[in-house]
Amino acid sequence: AQKAIMFCVCVVADSSEEDEKDYGPGGYHRVQVGQTYHDRFRVMQKLGWGHFSTVWQVWDMRSKQYYAMKVQKSARRYREAAEDEIEMLQHASKQNNDGEDTVLARHCVSLVDSFKHSGPNGQHVCMVFEMLGVDLLALIKASDYNLIRISLIKRIATHVLAGLKFMHQKCGLIHTDLKPENVMASNMARVILPPHPDMLKSIAFAKAAAGEAKSVEEAYGLLSKQQKKRLRKKLKDQAKADTEGAESGKSKSSTEQERDSSGQVCEDDSQYWKPEPPERRRLASKQFAIDCVVGNIGDDSLLFKLVDFGNACWDEKHFTDDIQTRQYRSPEVIIGACWDNKVDIWSAACTFWELATGDFLFDARAAKDGAFTKEDDHLALMVERLGPIPKAFALSGEDSKKYFHSNGDLKRISMQSLRPETLEDRLVRKYCWHRSSAQQFCEFLLPMLEFIPERRCSAAQALEHAWLQHCDGQDDVLSNVPASGQEHTSDAKHESSPTEQAKASDGTDVSQ
C-alpha cells in the first residue's frame, strides 16, 4: 500500500532574517541543511526564527516523521528559560492519562525530544516539537480582519479552553502569554496543501536518508501517481535551468559541502533536494489560513493547540510578575495585585474578541503630551467597556496608587470624560452584528472578563457555556457582516469610537 505522506505548513514569523550579529557567543547556532542532530534529526529546511531561537523542519530517522526543531540561543538566560520550558512540558506529558486527560492534552503542543548541542557560540538547548500549521494571527489576517465564521470561532474557543483546563487543573501550570500568535492549527486530515515539487524531492531524499528506501530513485516509487506527475514536470522544467547554470559556470565546489553536527562532511544532496523558497512557504501558509477561514478545510478536521510555553510558570512558583502581552494583560497584573491562572482566562477572552472582530478588545495608547500612560488608558478602556472597577480591587495592588485615587476613581483620566459602551452595543454599532448574536457572544465572554479574579470563570466553567454548545443557522455566516439594512464600511478596523475621537481631540496618541 502507498505510504501516506504528511505535508505540514509552518508559518514564517517574518519575511526578514535574523540579525547576523546575533551569530556570536551567547547567540544563535549556525544550523546547516543536511546536518544530523542527536544522531536522529536531519535538518531539511528553515521554518522561521524568533528573538530566542531559530526553528527548523527536521526528518526523524527513527519515527520517519517530520518535526520542528527549535534551537535556543546559548546565553545563560536563554538556556535556563528553555530548561524550565522543557521541565513543564515533560510534567504535562506525564499528566496525560487515559480518558478525558488525553482529549484535553491534545490541545497543548507535544514535546518530542530535547537535548543540548555544543557549537562555536556555546551550548544550545534544542527542543523538538510536533509540526503544526498557522497561528490564529495568520487566520485573522487571512480573513482581512473581519470574515471569520462563528462556527470556526466556537471551535477555536473550545480547543483553547480545553488546553487551559488541562494546564490549570491537571498540570498546575499557567501559560501567562496567551494570544493569537500562541495558538496554532493542526490539520487532523493530515494533508493541508498539495505538496510543492521541491518538497516532494525532500520527501524522497529523506526516505532514502532514513533507510526507508535504498536510493532516492526507490523512494520516488513511494510517491503517489499525482505526486510523481508533479515531480516529473518540475524536474523537466529545472533541467533546462540547470543546464544553463552549468554553462555559466555556476556549479557547486567541493568547498561548499556542508558538515554535520559531528564535523563530518555530508554528501552533496543538492542534486536531489533544494530548500523550499521562504516566499513559497509564506504563500502556502497564507493559503492554508484562507482555506480555514472560508471553509475549504472542514472545521471537524482542524485541531487548535496552545504553543510557546517559554513564559509559562507553576501555580506555586512565579518566575516574574512581568507577564502577558499588553493587549491581553489582565487588570490584576497592571495594578500589581496577586495573580493566578485566571490571567489566562482574561487573555483568552481578549483573543476570542479579536477573532470575532479583527480588533484588539483593549488597544491602549498613551497621551502625546504625557498626561496619561498606556496603563492609565488600558484601565480606562476596561471601565468604558466592562463598567466600574470595584474599589477594593482597584486599590489592592502594589501599583494601585499610580492609577487610582483613594476613592477608586482613575487618577489621570477624568471619569466624566469616559464614554461607556457595552461590548454588546459595540458589536452592533461598530461591527454590525445582529443583536441576538452579539448578546449570546457577550454572555459567553463577560464571565471571563470579571475584574475580580475569584469571580472570573474557570476554563472548565467556560467550556460548559451554552454559546459553545449551541449551533444555529447564523453560525455559517461570517462574524463581521452587516445586519440587514445596515451599511458596513471596509475600514471598520480603523474606525474610532466616540471615546477614541474625544481622546484624540485631547491630544491622545492614536497612531497605529
Strand order of the largest sheet: 1-2-3-4-6-5
Helix percent band: 25-40%
Strand content: 5-15%
**Radius of gyration, in angstroms, nearest whole number:** 25 Å
Which of globular, elongated, flat, extended, rod-shaped describes the shape? globular
Number of helices: 18
How would a crystallographer describe the biggest sheet? 6 strands, antiparallel
Q: How confident is the prediction overall: mean pLDDT?
A: 78
Low-confidence stretches: 1-15, 189-200, 206-217, 249-275, 482-512
List keywords for this structure.
six-stranded antiparallel beta sheet; alpha+beta; two-stranded antiparallel ribbon; 512 residues; disordered C terminus
What this model shows, in words?
This protein is α+β, with helices and mostly antiparallel strands and 512 residues long. Helix content is 37%, strand content 12%. The protein contains 18 helices and 10 strands. Helix 4 (150-171) packs antiparallel against helix 10 (342-357) and helix 14 (423-429) packs antiparallel against helix 15 (435-445). The radius of gyration is 25 Å and the shape is globular.
How is the topology of this model organized?
Blueprint: E1 36-37, E2 41-49, E3 53-60, E4 65-72, H1 76-94, H2 100-105, E5 111-119, E6 122-130, H3 136-142, H4 150-171, E7 173-174, E8 183-187, H5 197-209, H6 216-220, H7 225-247, H8 278-294, E9 302-306, E10 313-314, H9 331-334, H10 342-357, H11 374-386, H12 391-394, H13 400-403, H14 423-429, H15 435-445, H16 459-463, H17 466-469, H18 498-505
Antiparallel strand pairs: 1-2, 2-3, 3-4, 4-6, 5-6, 7-10, 8-9
Helix pairs in contact: 3-8, 4-10, 5-7, 14-15
